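Researcher: Good morning. I'm working through a list of sequences from a screen, and I'd like to move beyond sequence-only analysis. For each chain I'm collecting a predicted structure so we can compare shapes side by side. This is the next one on the list. No need for commentary yet; just the structure.
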Amino acid sequence: MSSSVAEPRQTDAGWIIVGNGRIGNALINMGSGKDILIRRNENVPSALLHQGEGKNEESKRDFLPLGPPVVIATRNDDLESVIDALPLDRKNDLVLIQNGMLDPFLKQKSLIPGDNCTQVLIYFAVSKKGDTPIDGNVQGPVGCNSHVPSNTNLDFGSITPKTRGLTAACGPHAVTFARRLWANGLTCRILDSKSFRQAMLEKLVWISAYMLIGVTKGGIRIGDIVRDHRQEVDDLASELILAGAEAIDVDLKSSDGLQYKGNEKEVMHEILERLAEYSNCVSEYPTALKEVSWRNGFFMNLSEAAEKVGKSDPCPIHSTLIKKALR
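Model: Good morning. Structure tokens for this chain:
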């Protein structure tokens, strides 16, 4: 455990973790031994979820007090079957850690990160199952810093909110999730909904831009992109940031204390530097296009929507490269 990370004040109770891949396994290894693992094709036993007393049919649609976090550590395409299997009154215990743009899917399920479910942007990396996680730390600004409600009884130590880790959580179980990571030497910001959307856009742009550039260069490693193709990836990321910010209403010129600071040009430079710094943390990772409909597909849809109404493509570089990559 890192000496600079504060011990959590509360004992880490058991979680329900669905999925035993690299990240799910890492979260289990960080726990107190009380977690319950549900493999991808198994259902979460209802007995583990119903914690309240006195509930009847008339009130079953009311949310019960928070129970154990139900961390969904599966691939995006498995989300629907897992969520649909959960009792309605336990949806607010959901913790979603998937990459990509989840908004349209979550809207269909009446789920709102920061309100009735928790969403986490994972920036720690696990090379292979069982390996020690590598934190995604940067030297420069992290963008949105932690917003810790006064009633959380959570002590992050003296380095809060200036931590350089990029992992972020938003929602009912954000503090619980952050506590486990911090207790294991990893960092996690707790963000409000507005700040989280900014951070979410950055992660979406990173995974869409860096993976696409890498694939078009023959599947090179992340570090090779930063070293040899920095301008090209910056050009792509810049257009994706602008298009994405407009699409999901992220203000690139906000002066709010928890939001971006400076004019749009300064903000863009800060984001690009942060994405490159993070890339150096995972420099040995290979590039590949995965779960395209959840990642690059978001920007492909923006381009298609603009074309349908006779507007110019907001992501022309991306459109050219993705067509080449998917041929």
